[in-house]
């Protein structure tokens, strides 16, 4: 369940993967497909470790991921989001229940807004000397994912462990 070492291990692996995603997005403006696939493939193991039932738990997770991918595909087609960002969001949606996903998206938007303001200010101040930076939105996605792990998943695990 929540205090299971497997769950902690999976959350630690997810946190490491998110740090790698943020780093590679900053460094090369790419989030590798293998990394997104690893995050997505970790979700079913997480479901089993958490004791999710096929109906409705897993089907809800799959439905959320499909919805996130559909919306992300529209944003990608409009050139508002990169393909790696869409795939990372979809993979993360597999890990989060509906309310957690909403909190994640709000936090991602807040972090992304601050990041955009910071990079926009840097671009305005250094426009004569330097090439403008693009916003690596994988950083905001990863930071929000780490926030979810740190504030939602881990405290719930600690509460469950203390209750026993």
From TrEMBL:
Record's keyword terms, sorted: Cell membrane, Membrane, Transmembrane, Transmembrane helix
GO molecular function: aspartic-type endopeptidase activity
Spans traversing the lipid bilayer: 6-24, 31-52, 58-78, 99-119, 139-163
Subcellular location as annotated: Cell membrane
GO cellular component: plasma membrane
Pfam assignment, any one: Peptidase_A24
Primary location class: membrane
Residue span(s) of domain Prepilin type IV endopeptidase peptidase: 13-117
Membrane disposition: Multi-pass membrane protein
Protein name stated in the entry: Peptidase
Organism of derivation: Aurantiacibacter rhizosphaerae
